[in-house]
Amino acid sequence: MTHPEPLNLAEALASFDEVYSPRIVTSVNDYEVRIAHTLGEHVWHEHTDTDEFFLVLAGTFDIALRDASGAERTVHLGEGDTFVVPKGVEHKPSSTGGSILMFEPTGTLTTGDVAADDVPDHVDSTSGHRL
Ligand code: NI
């Protein structure tokens, strides 16, 4: 899904309110650019087949990471910061409020490998919605 006209991210973000419910801005070959509002705790998950790129557009965005030994660390991101979660690494985003841009293969689920029953109500398990 590509747009024939320029698209403004601030206007796109203002067009919806849902938190952790990404909208698809455009596609680039077999990848998508998605944007989302962030607030509160996401859910621990991993993406077994793909890295996941984040750019913080506004506010704060922390990503807790758990390595294969179970050790955890958290990266703290602010506006303009970028980070890539490698494939297969468990992670849990959290935010005091803000917005992010993600770049990942079309079809990537926001909740990765997590069973539907284990996804909290405030987190949308989706591969992205149209704007
Ligand atoms: Ni993820």
Structure overview:
The protein has one helix at 9-14; strands spanning 23-28, 31-41, 52-66, 72-78, 82-85, 90-105, 129-130. Strand 3 (52-66) and strand 4 form a beta hairpin. The longest helix has 6 residues, at 9-14. Strands 1, 2, 3, 4, 5, 6 and 7 form a seven-stranded mixed sheet that branches. The protein is mostly beta strands and 131 residues long. It is built from one helix and seven strands, in the order αβββββββ. It starts with 8 loop residues before the first helix and ends with a strand. The chain has one domain (9-106): Jelly Rolls. Residues 45, 47, 52, 91, 112 line the site of nickel (II) ion. The site of nickel (II) ion (NI) has 5 residues, from loops.
Count of helical segments? 1
CATH architecture: Sandwich
* First and last CA, distance: 11 Å
* Unreliable runs: none
**Rg calc:** 14 Å
Number of strands: 7
User: How large is the share of residues in beta strands?
Assistant: over 45%
Descriptive labels:
5% helix; 47% strand; single chain; binds nickel (II) ion; seven-stranded mixed beta sheet; mainly beta; 1 helix; Jelly Rolls
Strand-helix topology:
Blueprint lengths: L8 H6 L8 E6 L2 E11 L10 E15 L5 E7 L3 E4 L4 E16 L23 E2 L1
Parallel strand pairs: 1-7
Antiparallel strand pairs: 1-2, 2-6, 3-4, 3-5, 3-6
